[in-house]
């Protein structure tokens, strides 16, 4: 006889009446994306901040076009362009304090560069040269993450650990709209809210996950609404309005830093280019749609605000464009140099102790390289990609 079958031995207590532990209302995002540029509130914005954002946007756009050109010249294996999304990239970098951490996805090279990373080093992974390619600790930028959303639990772990140690560190983690369907996204948000970890999640909703439009990705009212289910506030912001993204992220960072817990920010933006240079976007979206978004370009929006308020003139814009050209010329020149790479490095730093399988593969590669060297001596000098 089981315990449940023994009369009187098992008396389930009735469950307590269910009641919400927090009022969800303050957690809910606004129905419309928050905007600043072109509104009355923009008059209160700091002109210096607006000029700084503008300079970074112009440089960021130029970085994107240069990196895309490098893929066509065979100098870069792949580039997921953030053209059209520069406001999110730049604002994410600028809201961080020195000691904070950025957790970017593969599309966020620009945020890493705006954070201070060397533009060439930031492209190492996308060039196919090396794992990561930079020291994550130097600028507190985690590796550009290709497996969707896996950077989010890492960010939560780092932020939680910092809090336990009493360090003043906030982690800002970036992810795409498609990434919000991954298990890692849900696990990260849940842990972050339960632990009240000092972390800010920035979802760049650029309309697509490769060819999958948002409507096929989720039935939620907005991605920002997902925050409420975990018990953190969700904010919805116009992702092409650099001032608005900067303000919303700054508020979320402040909240996290002061022990107020995590925030999920959805920035509504658009991926102007194809997913990467390996994708043909005309197969799943119309030119009309792209043109509509070009009219809402982040640089145009900010330029309009700055020139309208006489905070920037043609000479000022030209100076920014020239600075961007210099950066692009330097990037082009350095990316055109052939790096000397040792293919055997492929096996270094994967495990502290090499596995049997990796040892076998390393031996095979070593033999192949030796055979190739015998056939054509000196062939492996210089570029080996
Ligand atoms: C775990 C995992 N599954 C699938 C992929 C393949 N993949 C690469 S990018 C991508 C779409 C991601 O879209 P989104 O999150 O919206 O980011 P976006 O590319 O638009 O910035 C997919 C499915 C991957 N990289 N990782
Ligand atoms: Mg997307």
Automatic annotation (TrEMBL):
<dbReference type="GO" id="GO:0009083">
    <property type="term" value="P:branched-chain amino acid catabolic process"/>
</dbReference>
<protein>
    <submittedName>
        <fullName>Pyruvate dehydrogenase E1 component alpha subunit</fullName>
        <ecNumber>1.2.4.1</ecNumber>
    </submittedName>
</protein>
<keyword id="KW-0670">Pyruvate</keyword>
<dbReference type="InterPro" id="IPR001017">
    <property type="entry name" value="DH_E1"/>
</dbReference>
<keyword id="KW-0786">Thiamine pyrophosphate</keyword>
<feature type="domain" description="Dehydrogenase E1 component">
    <location>
        <begin position="66"/>
        <end position="341"/>
    </location>
</feature>
<dbReference type="InterPro" id="IPR017596">
    <property type="entry name" value="PdhA/BkdA"/>
</dbReference>
<dbReference type="InterPro" id="IPR050771">
    <property type="entry name" value="Alpha-ketoacid_DH_E1_comp"/>
</dbReference>
<feature type="coiled-coil region">
    <location>
        <begin position="314"/>
        <end position="375"/>
    </location>
</feature>
<dbReference type="GO" id="GO:0000287">
    <property type="term" value="F:magnesium ion binding"/>
</dbReference>
<dbReference type="InterPro" id="IPR029061">
    <property type="entry name" value="THDP-binding"/>
</dbReference>
<keyword id="KW-0175">Coiled coil</keyword>
<feature type="region of interest" description="Disordered">
    <location>
        <begin position="1"/>
        <end position="31"/>
    </location>
</feature>
<dbReference type="GO" id="GO:0004739">
    <property type="term" value="F:pyruvate dehydrogenase (acetyl-transferring) activity"/>
</dbReference>
<keyword id="KW-0560">Oxidoreductase</keyword>
<dbReference type="Pfam" id="PF00676">
    <property type="entry name" value="E1_dh"/>
</dbReference>
């Amino acid at each position: 006889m089981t315990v449940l079958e023994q009369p009187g031995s098992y008396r389930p207590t009735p469950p307590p009446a269910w009641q919400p532990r927090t009022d969800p209302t303050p957690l809910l995002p606004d129905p419309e994306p928050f905007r600043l540029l072109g509104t009355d509130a923009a008059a209160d914005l700091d002109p210096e901040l607006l000029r700084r954002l503008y300079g970074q946007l112009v440089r960021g756009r130029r970085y994107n076009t240069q990196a895309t050109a490098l893929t066509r010249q065979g100098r870069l294996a792949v580039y997921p362009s953030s053209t059209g999304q520069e406001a999110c990239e730049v604002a994410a970098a600028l809201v961080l304090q020195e000691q904070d951490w950025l957790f970017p996805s593969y599309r966020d090279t620009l945020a890493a560069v705006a954070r201070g990373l060397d533009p060439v080093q930031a492209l190492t992974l996308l060039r196919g040269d090396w794992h990561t390619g930079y020291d994550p600790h130097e600028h507190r930028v985690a590796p550009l993450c290709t497996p969707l959303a896996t950077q989010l639990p890492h960010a939560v772990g780092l932020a939680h650990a910092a809090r336990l140690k009493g360090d003043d560190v906030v982690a800002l983690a970036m992810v795409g709209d498609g990434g919000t369907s991954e298990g890692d996204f849900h696990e990260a948000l849940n842990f972050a809210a339960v632990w009240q970890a000092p972390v800010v999640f920035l979802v760049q909703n650029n309309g697509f996950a490769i060819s999958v439009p948002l409507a096929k990705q989720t039935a939620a009212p907005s991605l920002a609404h997902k925050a409420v289910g975990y018990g953190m506030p969700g904010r919805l912001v116009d992702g092409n309005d650099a001032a608005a993204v900067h303000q919303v992220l700054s508020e979320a960072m402040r909240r996290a830093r002061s022990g107020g817990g995590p925030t999920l920010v959805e920035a509504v933006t658009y991926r102007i280019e194809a997913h990467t240079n390996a994708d043909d976007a005309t197969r799943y979206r119309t030119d009309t749609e792209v043109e509509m978004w070009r009219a809402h370009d982040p640089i145009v929006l900010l330029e309009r605000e700055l020139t309208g308020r006489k905070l920037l003139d043609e000479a000022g814009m030209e100076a920014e464009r020239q600075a961007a050209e210099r950066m692009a010329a330097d990037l082009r020149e350095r990316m055109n140099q052939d790096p000397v790479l040792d293919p055997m490095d492929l096996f270094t730093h994967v495990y502290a102790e090499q596995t049997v399988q990796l040892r076998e593969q390393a031996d095979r590669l070593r033999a192949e390289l030796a055979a190739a060297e015998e056939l054509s001596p000196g062939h492996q000098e210089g570029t080996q990609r």
